[in-house]
């Protein structure tokens, strides 16, 4: 799961203040393949995990396969500013 962050679909979670591990996934939800559900799951800190996370984006456009990664990135940035003790 760390490789998905450093080299794959979760690269949006490469941040200087905490090492994260994660994985993305998608599911088509209609016959026309117009919409998908997408998600990212993971944990942090990578070396000594304390916390896990899941972000699910329901019924997004078919090409939005990593939208949850960007939502989680905003959360990590917010945590770094407001609650950095959780990132140690």
From TrEMBL:
CC annotations in GO: plasma membrane
Any one GO molecular-function label of the UniProt entry: penicillin binding
InterPro entries assigned to the protein according to its UniProt record, in alphabetical order: Beta-lactam/transpept, Beta-lactam/transpept-like, PCN-bd_Tpept
The Penicillin-binding protein transpeptidase domain, residue ranges: 2-61
Pfam families: Transpeptidase (PF00905)
Domain of life: Bacteria
GO biological process assignments: cell wall organization
Family matches, as PANTHER family: PEPTIDOGLYCAN D,D-TRANSPEPTIDASE, PEPTIDOGLYCAN D,D-TRANSPEPTIDASE MRDA
Name of the protein this chain belongs to: Penicillin-binding protein
Species the sequence originates in: Candidatus Nomurabacteria bacterium GW2011_GWB1_44_12
Organism lineage string: Bacteria, Candidatus Nomuraibacteriota
């Amino acid at each position: 799961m760390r490789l998905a962050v450093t080299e794959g679909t979760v690269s949006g979670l490469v941040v200087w203040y905490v090492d994260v591990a994660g994985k993305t996934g998608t599911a088509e939800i209609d016959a026309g393949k117009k919409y998908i559900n997408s998600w990212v799951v993971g944990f942090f800190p990578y070396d000594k995990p304390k916390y896990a996370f899941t972000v699910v984006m329901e019924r997004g456009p078919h090409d939005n396969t990593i939208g949850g990664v960007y939502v989680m990135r905003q959360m990590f940035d917010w945590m770094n500013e407001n609650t950095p003790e959780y990132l140690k």
